[in-house]
Amino acid sequence: MHVLQSKNSKLKKEDVDKLLTEFNISLTQLPKISKKDPLIEGNFEVGEVVKFERKSEEGVEEYFRVVV
Fold it and tell me: pTM of the entire structure?
């Protein structure tokens, strides 16, 4: 992994449920990422949620995408 590339990981089903409940959203409302995107290519299936962690001056920022 490149030093500037965000760390990514697959969320477990229960973590996805917590995320959706916390933000009061549905899975279709999450931002999307293509299964063919070079950041995740070959590691994720359609419908899974990917958690990205990006370092910033304030600490580590997390953001989420659903694979389409």
Answer: 0.83
